[in-house]
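Ticket #4471: complex job returned nothing on first submit. Input attached below:
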Amino acid sequence: MKSARNDKSVAIALEGVNMSFGTRRVMHDLTCEFARGKITVILGGSGSGKSTLLRLIGGLIRPQSGAIYIDGRDVTKLAESDMYDVRRDIGMMFQHGALLDSISVFDNLAFPLHEHTDMSEDDIADEVRDRLDAVGLANAEDLLPGQLSGGMLKRAALARAIIQRPKILLCDEPFSGLDPISVKRIEALLLQVNQRYEMTTLLVSHHVATTMRMANHVLVLKASGAVSGSPEEMRASADPLIHNLLSDELTDNIDDIEPEGGAARA
Amino acid sequence: MIELIRELGFLVYRFIYDLGRFGMFALSVVKNLFVRPLRWRRFCEEIFKEGVLSIVIICVSGLAVGMVLSLQGYNTLIRFGAEETLGAVVGLSLVRELGPVLTALLTTGRAGSATAAEIATMVKDEQLDGLRMMSIDPMHLIVTPKAASMILVMPLLSAMFICCGLFGGWMIGVLLMGIDGGTYLTSMESSMTFADDVAGSLLKSVIFGILVGLISTYRGFTATPTSEGVSSATTSTVVFASVCVLISDYFITALWGV
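Support reply: We reran it on our side without changes. The output follows.
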């Protein structure tokens, strides 16, 4: 892992991470890495720690032990105030959007720009409208988040996550609760963002078929550890859990698959 | 027996743990008061939400309390032939005790609970995590302006409550019961000093503002991210803040004679 820590092609590396919530162990000695500029899909049954992994990388929760390297820097030892500097390079698309519900979509996107840049009001407005246009929400800028449909909310969340052009994009269930047309639209947007800005993208989703189409790499979380590889390698795997997960490419939903060891929901 | 001791030990542990967390939270609020950029706009918005929107309930309550106080005071004092001192009784009761305490309780119910519910909902909907991921400290942006504005708003609302109460007392005493207006006001003025009574009242209000501001924001910030967590944060804010106001009122009165 030391080489991975200093390897420029690796954006994020986890080393022996252990994470528990109370007496419930979610991660045991997890070691894995994520390639720079690529889309990595994180798969696993319910409760396998997929969302927890994103929150660990974002520093929203801290592991009990182990190290998380972002651009070679161990962020688990950082104070919260230093973590804010690291997060400037990370965008996160939350499962339910996490937009500020008391301000409009436009203001939600403009907010981080007001906070962290010296851009003029006109430049900020141009930037926000450019992003809203890219995600197909040009006519929704004055709406409050509560007035958006599920698909629109996801697109607004994606637009906010990439407004500062982060190096790393974390997406937690970007396709959940969406109709097939909206899924296609978000998929196209994520691919476009990844190609245009070369963002290291980590994708947690139960939509196996969609995510496998997009993936450069796949990480499968199991109770006994993580298995990673290319989509083709994963499809050829003899591991029963992986086989089960990927056989659901046809049904496109792995909600009902329990993780090894029957861990509860994370 | 062992089980009982264990339970008691756990309760004591939880109390000390919560007290420590609350202390750290309060220190963080104080620290964030001086962190740039200063959130003046948010501070003014909170003054509007916590203060301006509470004016009606404070004024109506103050008026009613003053009227009742005057009515009760008159009926009691007249037995001793001391109805001329009604102004002093109403004035001192409102300024020293009822004004700050009832304002704090009313503000807790209206603004404190709303503050806790708003922050707890943001916790539940991951809005605070969203802010953290945008490198914006929610303690600085959300919590500190809410807590700080409560400290400013409380003495102002208390002053309004007292003014309305004094007016209500004057209406009943002078207009209804027929006490001479000059006697009423002179009795009130001669019985009160600025340093002991008015400044003391102000001090109480500021302390109550600190308590209500910190408790409501703390309860919201540490809420469990569920619907039940939001309601629990709101309820516990009203209960804890009210009890703290009443207990601290006793100690302020006992220790400083205010």
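Residues 147 and 213 of chain B are 4 Å apart (CA to CA). Closing as resolved unless it happens again.
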